[in-house]
Design goal:
Layout: E1 10-11, H1 17-49, H2 51-61, E2 64-65, E3 74-75, H3 76-101, H4 108-136, H5 151-161, H6 167-191, H7 198-216, H8 222-239, H9 244-253, H10 266-290, H11 297-303, H12 307-334, E4 338-339, H13 345-354, H14 360-369, H15 374-401, H16 403-414, H17 431-459
Parallel strand pairs: 1-4
Antiparallel strand pairs: 2-3
Length: 466
Amino acid sequence: MSTPQKSGRTVFGRLSLSERTFVADALRTETVGGMLLLVAAVAAVVWANVPALHHGYETFRDVHLGPGVLGLNLSLEHWAADGLLAVFFFVAGIELKRELVAGDLRDPRAAALPVAAAVCGMAAPALVYTVVNVVGGGSLGGWAVPTATDIAFALAVLAVLGTSLPNALRAFLLTLAVVDDLLAILIIAVFFTDQLNFAALGGAFAGLVLFWLLLRKNVRGWYVYVPLALVIWGLMYNSGVHATIAGVAMGLMLRCTRRDGEEHSPGEHIEHLVRPLSAGLAVPLFALFSAGVLVSGKALGDVFTAPETLGVVLGLVVGKALGIFGGTWLTARFTSASLSSELAWPDVFAVASLAGIGFTVSLLIGELAFADDALLTDEVKAAVLIGSVIAALFSAVLLKIRNAKYRALWEAEERDEDQDGVPDIYQEGRPEYHLRMAALYEEKAAEHRRLAEVAAGEGAGGERPA
């Protein structure tokens, strides 16, 4: 009698063809943006630490622009954190909406894994930070700093390493980051909102309602939505709620399902247009203005001795890895989900370690958490940079150990012998695929026979066949 097999969903199994195409397009843009992010971060650190240039860096990012009468006379550093990152969170809102209505998160059973992993991946770093600071007598205000994952930075690390991760693991990392961004947005909105200006908040809410009504009426034209979005952003900034919340709110309002005759939904179309602006300009410029911290032997030593900075480093390196891996394992252990036979749990732990790269949002939360202490803010930024580098190096070692296995899986996923643009793995059960492959193999066999006849004719000194 055969042993009954466990029924249920396969964790990190093969993606659908449409989901695979979306993930490939999204990751391609994020990877390029991640490269620019790395360049901007390195440039900021060099700019801030070269003695002849340090003063110029401080002066440049403190330049103020904008209409003071509207409460928007901000420094370039604040324009980057409050303005440009609103574009980043706008794209995050569209990604989240798409995942909820057309991606993995639309199915509660499929959503359980990335949601559980993301929640545990944010709770564990916060717990690690809290424990370190309770024991060390530090400030608990930075508990949220190590909770975020920077997907662009993580994918840039993958691109630099040249690691051929299977598409399912890449999709998990992307979906995890989407949920992570949502939770980070909620943390910013709930815990880092000071005094509220209810008039401005009411105006921002009215603007969002108008934005939604225009979308419902299918009103088109960037000249309608861009000015309205700027007004909503300005009102949200003056309300006391962090201005990036306006970006994610507008992103969530876009329709991400296709109607009859549509090649792309409005959300997909706008995301395709705005994502390069977010990944290629907004986030790198934010890094340029925020990552410029002084790095010295004493500063590096302080990172590993002060409880606030040590809590950030351990939260990113230890808390993220254990939280995401633990959430994934518990979900698979106590539900009907099972790990793909092609992967092993160390693979999941390697990706979980990669999620410890918490750059963009961690820097933003660090600025908000210690806004009244400029010295501690810079020290926490340095801790974010160091923790992200350690997490990147640690995950690189883990991924390289299994790189040969990953490459074999990736090549199997990408194989397209009939060259029809669709990987063979998605067609192997279809009769027409087998007919095409039989014709292809017969063509190759005929070519081999012809070459054999040529070789035989030349070897016998006879006349070469035509």
